[in-house]
């Protein structure tokens, strides 16, 4: 027996760059966001932080239940504390939403190209989220707010089906209370107690921008919502190459090998999931792919 | 204090109208204020006017069953509250309730319809502008039918 412990498989994988080998993480905390959505706070069992860029995703699974690609929703300034906001849609994601503190999950990644919010430095940033699309944008917003003086006006526009389906409600209230970010929230329908906007997410987009050429927009949500919002932003004067969207496809391997996420010449998991709108606008309305 | 012509000119729907048209519309206009939870109009009542919201927020509510309402849209600064005044039988099919302190210019519908009948050129221009607002609202309603915040197939 030597006095130096042999490297674990995880350490070897990291050194060798073995991207398909999952690392074990423990669930530290869970927070129910809506009836079918929860945010899981995770820490790696080996204690090694997981640096990530806003907009990147991991492939995460509960042993025995399969794995799913999930965008990271936490603060990139805290890579030792990984957050994922998961909506229960199928068996794998239901198993994640029902995870409890102490459970072990297996993660691969982080993968993919993120929002690269540095593109917006010196200008305005408009963040447009629909439904669970606020989760992948939250790290971008947190990073922007951590370096707030580098940006001019910052807008957050959030649309959801109904008030009870909104994510991060406490944090939304906090952001609304700040003077350095303009927050607009709308829902599709509401009961009379609701005191906010009701209507399509485009109805609460800022109507004018100080400098459209110097404005960066980050849009995330279901594809139809992103297309409508991106088109509205372009109509309002933003350049399509200054609008970014995050595409969802059937991402399996996460590294562009299996081909499930292929979108014509693009591999969403490798070339994206975040793309400039001018690069994918035509693909988003293609009749056949 | 601003006069009605000035207030009207600030409304996007009337931007760039000629002075003669402003004067014509202003002759049918009143300045109004609504407190929180005060109704601008109610389902089934005659649609005898419409509102251009200058400031505030108005909820458009659909009566589902007696005692049960659903907000299906809101109208905010610069937008029109009320379209039923344009189409027979000129009756509201929604409730409109101020959810914030709301100031609006109200337009007497029969007065404006009469002037539009007398001056078809004015009527055509106004109809084009109101139609644009109607189209946007109809398109938004269609898009919302597609459940735009629904679950992407990814599991």
Could you walk me through the main structural features you see in this protein, from its secondary elements to its overall organization?
Chain A has seven helices and 15 strands. By secondary structure, chain A is of the alpha/beta class. The radius of gyration of chain A is 19 Å and the shape is globular. The N and C termini of chain A lie far apart (58 Å). In chain B, the strands form two sheets. Chain B has a four-stranded antiparallel sheet with strand order 1-8-3-6. In chain B, helix 3 crosses helix 4 (120-145). The radius of gyration of chain B is 17 Å and the shape is globular. The A-B interface holds A 68-69, 87, 89-93, 130-133, 159-161, 165, 186, 188-192, 194-203, 221-225, 228, 248-251 and B 57, 59-61, 69-74, 76, 97, 99-100, 140, 143-144, 146-155.
Ordered list of secondary-structure elements with their pairings:
The complex is a heterodimer of chains A (289) and B (155).
Chain A: H1 9-16, E1 23-34, E2 37-44, E3 57-61, E4 67-71, E5 82-87, H2 91-97, E6 104-111, E7 124-130, H3 134-146, E8 154-160, H4 169-177, E9 182-187, E10 197-198, E11 215-220, H5 223-235, E12 243-246, E13 262-263, E14 266-267, H6 268-271, E15 274-276, H7 277-284
Parallel strand pairs in A: 7-8, 7-11, 8-9, 9-10, 11-12
Antiparallel strand pairs in A: 1-2, 1-6, 2-5, 3-4, 3-6, 12-15, 13-14
Chain B: H1 4-9, H2 19-26, E1 29-34, E2 39-41, E3 49-55, E4 57-65, E5 68-76, E6 80-81, E7 95-98, E8 102-108, H3 109-118, H4 120-145
Antiparallel strand pairs in B: 1-8, 2-7, 3-6, 3-8, 4-5, 4-7
Could you tell me the radius of gyration of chain B in angstroms? 17 Å
Helix and strand run of chain B: HHEEEEEEEEHH
Which strands sit side by side, in order, in the main sheet of chain B? 1-8-3-6
What composes the largest sheet of chain A?
Answer: 7 strands, mixed
> Structural class, judged by helices and strands of chain A?
alpha/beta
Question: Of all protein chain pairs, which has the greatest interface, and how many residues does each chain bring to it?
Answer: A-B, 42 and 27 residues
């Amino acid at each position: 027996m030597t006095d130096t412990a042999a490297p674990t498989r995880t350490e070897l994988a990291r050194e060798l760059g073995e991207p398909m080998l999952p690392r074990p993480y423990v669930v530290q905390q869970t927070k129910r966001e809506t009836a079918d959505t929860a945010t899981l706070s995770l820490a790696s069992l080996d204690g090694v932080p997981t640096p990530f860029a806003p907009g990147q995703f991991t492939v995460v699974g509960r042993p025995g239940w399969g794995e799913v690609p999930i965008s990271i929703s936490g603060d990139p300034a805290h890579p030792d504390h990984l957050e994922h906001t998961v909506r229960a849609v199928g068996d794998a994601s239901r198993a994640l939403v029902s995870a409890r503190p102490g459970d072990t999950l297996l993660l691969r990644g982080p993968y993919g190209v993120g929002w690269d919010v540095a593109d917006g430095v010196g200008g305005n940033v408009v963040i447009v989220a629909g439904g669970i699309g606020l989760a992948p944008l939250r790290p971008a917003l947190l990073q922007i707010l951590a370096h707030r003086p580098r940006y001019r006006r910052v807008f957050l526009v959030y649309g959801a089906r109904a008030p009870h389906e909104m994510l991060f409600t406490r944090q939304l209230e906090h952001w609304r209370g700040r003077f350095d970010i303009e927050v607009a929230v709308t829902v599709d329908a509401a009961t009379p107690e609701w005191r906010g906007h009701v209507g399509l997410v485009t109805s609460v987009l800022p109507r004018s921008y100080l400098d459209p050429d110097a404005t960066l927009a980050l849009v995330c949500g279901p594809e139809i919502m992103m297309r409508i919002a991106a088109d509205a932003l372009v109509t309002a004067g933003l350049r399509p190459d200054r609008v970014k969207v995050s595409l969802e496809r059937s991402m399996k391997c996460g590294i562009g090998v299996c081909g499930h996420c292929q979108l014509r010449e693009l591999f969403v998991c490798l070339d994206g999931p975040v793309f400039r709108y001018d690069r994918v606008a035509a693909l988003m309305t293609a009749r056949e792919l | 204090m601003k006069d009605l012509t000035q207030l009207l000119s600030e409304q996007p729907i009337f931007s760039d109208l000629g002075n003669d048209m402003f004067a014509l519309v202003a002759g049918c206009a009143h300045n109004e204020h609504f407190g929180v939870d005060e109704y601008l109009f109610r389902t089934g009542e005659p649609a005898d006017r419409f509102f251009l919201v200058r400031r505030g927020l108005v909820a458009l509510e659909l009566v589902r069953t007696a005692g049960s309402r659903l907000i299906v849209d809101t109208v905010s600064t610069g937008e029109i509250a009320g379209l039923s005044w344009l189409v027979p039988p000129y009756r509201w099919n929604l409730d409109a309730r101020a959810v914030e302190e709301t100031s609006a210019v109200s337009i007497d519908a029969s007065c404006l319809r009469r002037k539009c009948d007398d001056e078809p050129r004015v009527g055509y221009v106004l109809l084009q502008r109101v139609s644009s607002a109607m189209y946007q609202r109809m398109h938004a309603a269609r898009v919302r039918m597609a459940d735009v915040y629904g679950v992407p197939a990814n599991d």
